[in-house]
Every structure is written in structure tokens, then in C-alpha cells.
Fold this protein.
Amino acid sequence: MLIFNCTEAASNFFSRVHKGKKISPVEKPPSPVIEDDEPVESAEQWLVHAITGQRKHVLFAIHVQTRYCMIFADAKKADIEGFVHRFAERWINGLMRHAGQHDILRWIDDEPMTERFLESCAEYVFYKRGHRGAQKHISEISWVFEGFAAEWGSLPTDEFSAGRFDGYMNDTLRGSKGHKDYYHPDEEMIVHWLRRYGGLDESAVQAARERRKEVKREIWEFERQLKLEAQ
């Protein structure tokens, strides 16, 4: 199940007024603190926040466990189904692109993985509830995003451009409660997916993690060589 925990701004974004009455899909949560919810194995907890950028609505969604984030520019107000559809497509496409770039596709059986995801996340719910740690990271990401948008003079014009910004932010080292060391959200999310939807045992998951680290080092070394040659 997808659980979208909405800040005050996001709650207002997803609500609409009809004949003078406010209509909202955002419900009261089962507990005020996300971590106090009754554990549900299939639950994917996200925090969603809304801002206005370049005079358009922008949504930020961050995975509470891994801090993996996605930014949705020019979002349509109160369009719940449109947001969920866009969200699921961006999530899957972003992970598959990351897997391809880091030689992880050998551990992914595309159709069964997608089927497991669709079955597990077929239902969704919106709660009015925050999360201090995730909100701090959203605030940082929002600040960076607004700076880029000002430099570009516009918001990302398509899903590919938005996905590239997602990738840039998810490659940023982060720290959060429950993690001993700093980590990359994109690495933590791909590992999360392989465990939950990939049907892999832990040895295969760790092999994929190590291969990603190897490719990352190869990319860094290649970029370092290019800089040296350009001097």
C-alpha cells in the first residue's frame, strides 16, 4: 500500500472546494507519528509537500525509509489519480534507469518485479501527517530545486528532465535516524526494491549493491581522468 503523508501545504493542494464546501481525500492518520503505525509489510510511507515555483504547483515526495525523492513540476491541483499514476511511473522508470546505468539489470526480472509492485501498491491512502526528518530533507531539496529553476528560467519541461533532477538529488549523501553512516538514497532505494519486489535472497541483494558501488567507482575514476586530460 502506498501511504502519502501530506504536509499542510500538500493537504490543501489535494483538496478542492465544491459549492462552498471543502472536499479532501486526505484522511486522519491512525497515529500522529508514522513510526507508531501498526507495522504493515507492504506499506510504503512517503511524505508529500507542495510549493509554488515559477507560478506553478510543484510537489515533492520523499520516501521516509530511504529518503529517495521525486519532484513533480506543474502538478494539477486536486488531481489525485493523475498524481498517483505519474508517481508510480516515475518511480519505476527512475529505478530501471538507475539499474541500467549501474549494471544491476542482471538481478532484475522485469515482469515479475512489476507484477509484485502493482499487486502490493494497488491501494493508496492520503493522511494529513508530517515527519520532521523527512521534512528537513524536503526543505533542502526544495531550496536546491528553486535555485535550479531560477537558473533555467523555467520548471523541468518533461518527465525525463524531472527524472534527471531526481537522479541528481538521490545521488546526494544523506543521513537519517536508523542509519549508522551517511548513504545515497538511490542505492538504498534500489536495494529496497530488490528485497521487496525483486524476489531476491539477501546474498543476491548484497551482490547487486556491491556491483553498483564498483560501477560508481569506475564512473568517478573516468570523470577524474577527463578532468586531468582537460587541464
